[in-house]
Design goal:
Elements lengths: L4 E6 L12 H11 L5 H4 L6 H9 L24 E8 L8 H12 L3 E2 L4 E4 L4 H19 L8 H9 L10 E5 L6 H9 L4 E10 L9 E7 L13 E4 L5 H10 L9 E12 L2 E8 L6 E2 H8 L8 H7 L6 H10 L4 H10 L3 H7 L7 H7 L6 E4 L10 E7 L2 E2 L9 E2 L1 H6 L7 E7 L14 E6 L4 H16 L7 E7 L9 H9 L5 E6 L10 H8 L1 H10 L3 E4 L3 H19 L3 H13 L4
Parallel strand pairs: 1-2, 2-3, 2-4, 17-18, 17-20, 18-19
Antiparallel strand pairs: 5-9, 6-7, 6-16, 7-13, 8-12, 8-16, 9-10, 9-11, 14-15
Helix pairs in contact: 1-4, 3-4, 5-6, 8-9, 10-11, 18-19, 18-20, 19-20, 20-21
């Protein structure tokens, strides 16, 4: 409330919730909006930001102009704040930009003055261009509101929005040799400002049948006695992977000035400062990545597989010596429809871009300073810390596919393929990310329904192992827990089949149900069909009458189908309208029971 201008750029997580680093911000806004809410109610403050955002959806128009604020407090706690919001997301998911919409609505309800309508960036289509458009408009709007337009060259300032003081120029960056470099985990901490720990790779096993053409691996890690790698069932492990070896070496070979692969280098930036004596230039450390070999940079620190952005293509274009290739790069770098079609058809790594445009002469410092950082991948932990002390287990689908309608080169999932290539004793840089809203009920007698096709079963293995441990070591009674699993064929990809049967025999599960979508001689069946045909009354009884919990883990399409099915079940058995059934499910979510 002490700021005069607030610009918010945010993604949305899960069911319309804030991203991890925006949770406190979201809660603070909710508490400002509902100051008299009880402490107990505040515990549910991931409190459906998407229900707040749905209000804002009803007020959309095509104009950029901020609408009138007649319905809201002009004297609220943010009455002196001007604001605008940009949401990042993907229309492939429900609740597109829901948290951003909630923030936009809450700022207005708290008295803030919107200077520009909320912008949206869809990663499926032109996100970068959408953001640049919003950034230019919001900059101009802010200049107008604060009456600084006369003193600012708007066009020049707009240009600086898409480049910055550290955008690449060959004369501004150089590599120098150095003798020392931090360890891998220290370097990752330096880059991501996140504590990273080295777990030890113990073993992996392919869980799919011998006749399967796909691979799901069971991975065992030793936590190396790191206190910070302790976890609860339901938590996630963030893993910092390594890029494919062949891609890394091919990329190094394509650079015009690559240093020896084992030579530690430091990137330096020519900083220019205006002083009373004129412009002073001096070389300073570029701190984006610490000193390392160029091999380490491309292997562990930089993202070399995500399709090259329009901004990077714009920097590539003048480096093409072939005019036809240069013009094609200039067209793609505009980030418009032609770029989107090229990106989705080819899904090209930076190596494939250099192969498509072979006249490019790329200096090392361009990629070292402009490629995006390699981000961690998150996996649900598949083990109980009590049943397997000191260990972390993962269940990982190994991803590979061919772009160009199946005719292109094989692309491998970065992290899953890396985990599938490790040898015993190798280090896995990782950290635990808590999932406090994905926990088993404290009361072991509360009924639970677990729904997880494919590797969606991963977190539920931690649940059933924990319950098994508690039954055998803490004397708790058998619990009313039901598992609904889905896969293609019983003999091909029914992972953890024997383990779940053993758990049922030990009374961890009340029932096990499996939906096979490609079982020979049987009609297709999916997990939502099991709910509708075999568990309809049980779902209603557990959730409506017995205070039970339902957990869903897996891809977004399946989760949407399950949601619709549960909604229909409530409508059928609860004599509700479809809308009321939807509201009831939202209530379950607020109570962390769905």
């Amino acid at each position: 409330e002490h700021e005069t201008l607030v610009l918010v750029v945010t993604s949305t997580f899960g069911n319309g919730d804030p991203p991890e680093n925006g949770e406190k911000f979201g809660v603070a806004l909710m508490e400002m909006r509902h100051p008299t809410t009880s402490v107990e109610d505040r515990k549910t403050y991931k409190v459906r930001f998407n229900s707040v955002s749905s209000y804002s959806d009803t007020r959309k128009s095509s104009s950029d102009e901020p609408e009138s604020k007649a319905n809201f407090e002009s004297t609220g706690p943010l009455a002196n704040v001007r604001f605008s919001v940009f949401g990042l997301g993907s229309r492939a998911y429900p609740h597109f930009c829901a948290f951003a919409h909630a923030v936009d609505t809450l700022f207005e309800e708290l008295g803030g003055e919107r200077i520009l309508r909320m912008g949206e960036g869809d990663e499926l289509c032109g996100q970068e261009e959408s953001f640049r458009t919003w950034a230019k408009k919001v900059f101009k709007a802010a200049c107008d509101v604060f009456c600084v337009g006369d003193d600012v060259n708007i066009e020049k300032a707009n240009d600086s929005l898409i480049s910055n003081d550290r955008s690449w120029k060959k004369s501004k960056f150089r590599m120098t040799y150095t003798a020392e470099a931090p360890t891998l985990t220290q370097a990752l901490y330096s880059i991501h400002k996140k504590k990273v720990y080295g777990a030890k790779f113990l073993m992996r096993q392919n869980l799919q049948g011998a006749r399967s053409n796909r691979s799901t691996i069971f991975v065992r890690l030793d936590a190396n006695n790191h206190e910070s790698l302790k976890y609860f069932p339901g938590d996630h492990l963030g893993v910092f992977p390594g890029n494919n070896e062949v891609l890394v070496m091919t990329l190094i070979e394509k650079l015009e000035d690559a240093p020896p692969v084992n030579q530690i280098v430091r990137v330096e930036f020519l900083e220019e400062r205006n002083t009373a004596l004129g412009v002073i230039s001096n070389w300073t450390d570029e701190t984006r990545i610490p000193p390392c070999t160029i091999y380490q940079a491309f292997k562990y620190f930089l993202d070399i597989t995500t399709p090259t952005s329009p901004l990077l293509l714009r920097q590539f274009a003048p480096l093409a010596t072939n005019e036809k290739q240069r013009k094609r790069l200039e067209v793609l770098s505009k980030g418009l429809q032609e770029y989107e079609e090229w990106k989705w058809y080819n899904n090209p790594s930076v190596v494939e871009v250099l192969e498509e445009f072979p006249s490019l002469q790329i200096p090392s410092t361009l990629l070292l300073t402009q490629l995006p950082l390699l981000q961690p991948r998150y996996y649900s932990i598949s083990s109980s810390p009590d049943l397997h002390p000191g260990e972390i287990h993962l269940s990982v689908a190994v991803v590979s596919y061919r772009p160009r309608d199946g005719e292109g080169p094989v692309h491998h999932g970065v992290c899953s393929s890396w985990l599938n290539s490790l040898e015993e004793g190798d280090t896995v840089p990782c950290f635990v990310r808590g999932a406090p809203t994905f926990r088993m009920p404290k009361d072991s007698q509360v009924p639970c329904i677990l729904i997880g096709p494919g590797t969606g079963i991963a977190p539920f293995r931690s649940f059933w192992q924990q319950r098994l441990y508690d039954i055998e070591n803490k004397g708790i009674k058998a619990c009313p827990m039901i598992l609904v699993f889905g896969c293609r064929q019983s003999q091909i990809d029914h992972i953890y089949k024997e383990e779940t049967i053993q758990a049922k025999n030990k009374e961890v599960f009340k029932e096990l149900y499996t939906a096979y979508s490609r079982e020979p001689g049987r009609p297709k069946k999916y997990v939502q069909d099991v709910l509708r045909e075999q568990l309809s009354e049980t779902v209603y009884k557990y959730l409506r009458e017995e205070g039970g919990h339902i957990y869903v883990c897996g891809d977004v399409t399946m989760a949407g189908d399950v949601l619709k099915t549960v909604q229909q079940i409530f409508k059928l058995h609860g004599n509700m309208s479809l809308e009321d059934a939807g509201f009831y499910i939202s209530k379950l979510r607020d109570e962390n029971r769905y």
